[in-house]
Amino acid sequence: MAKTKAAPIKPHTIPKLELTALMLAARLAKYISEAYADELSIENIYLWTDSQITLYWLSSKKLLPVYVQNRIDEIKALVPDAEFRYVSTKNNPSNLVFRETSYDSLKGSSLWWGGPTWLPHQNMWPENGPFDDVGDTTTGCLLEETLSLPVWVTLSAIMNWD
Asked: CA end-to-end span of the chain, whole Å?
């Protein structure tokens, strides 16, 4: 399932667009888990992003700007037990559609169709990093370095065939 949203008319920073993308992923994860509640027993929800600033905001105990805090609050309310995970841009299948990728390349891309090779092996998942210790200087760098918008959702479920 895929979901997109057009960028707002009023310009936003890239980090705010990244945060909005994660909020959309949270809405989608909640929708999927509710829609399949009778067929699946979902044990874990993982929301993946290549936006380090968004992960920092999610773990921050500092006072955040109103726009950011409202979206963080909504994400946490939608999927309170979700785990937010970092994926590098090169391993993010969502980024393939933002690059100059031909139809034939996308059609044959194992990353696009199956995700990163390490995804089925939780012990091989990349580390998130210490986002709670990020200082103001680093935050400024993250704001400038975060350039991609995609996020993706992984639902870990057990099939319930009863």
From this structure: 25
